[in-house]
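Shape matters. Shown next:

___
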Amino acid sequence: MTETTLDNVFEVTEQNFETDVINASRTTPVLIDFWATWCGPCKALSPLLDQLAAEYNGAFRLGKADVDKNQNLAGMFGIRSVPTVMLVKDGEIADGFAGALPLAQLREFLAKHVQPNAAPDTAAQAAEVLAETPEETINRLQQAIAAEPERSELKLDLALALAQAGQSEAAATELEALPANLATEARAVRLRSQLDLAKSLQAAPPQAELEKRIADNAQDWAAHDLLGVRLLLGDNPAAGLNEFMTILEHAPNWNDGAAKKRLLAAFNTLGDAELVGRYRRKMAEVLF
């Protein structure tokens, strides 16, 4: 683990700590992986951190500190167990955690502090992807999986592409076949919630009919519920959340507390942290 040729990954020593960690962190955050040769969980965590360092493309640097060789550093950071990871930013410790977290939780940890840099050809690749039809995207991913079946992340990309193309059953099949480390990733959790919500619309009336039902009877909670799902999965998620809140405020026990369940599922579905936070607070105000 001390030897690496990966860009943005280096060995931390007591000699280079001031220059390569403290001073360097004033321009680029440094994630320090405190590890030991005898530590099994360290060996599981290390390749995941390497993967993220590559994905973030220089948005942070990954330093690896062998605690047995750098006991003074370990003592300075108060390291009591390995692996322990510390994020140094602007010359100070910004955050950290102990233990070997799964990839999804590592992504969540980093997302609080660092945004990935785009690779040099990312813009061109993104333009190509945007120009693809859903069918072309699915075909491209299927070919990539056939060529590199060990790249499990491509299978998650395929599940997302199938869902985008409206092939919900195929997307669900791919989703259930994902390995455990990807099944708990944020994108997979979000897609699973989306597919569960979409099931309720299989025999649902169109939006205009649902809106008319509510206009005729404001207490048609089933119409509020289905309209909320349509709006949530469409282009107006805030309006969808409002429909669920209406039920929660006026008929919290309707359909065995369906509104609360819908809101919790919606929070897992949406990627807008500000919107989710706002409606979590609204839900808490009603419930508590």
About this structure: Residues 1-5 have pLDDT under 50 and may be disordered. The domain at 9-111 is CATH 3.40.30.10 (Glutaredoxin). The chain has three domains: 9-111, 132-199, 207-287. The first strand starts at residue 9 and ends at 11.
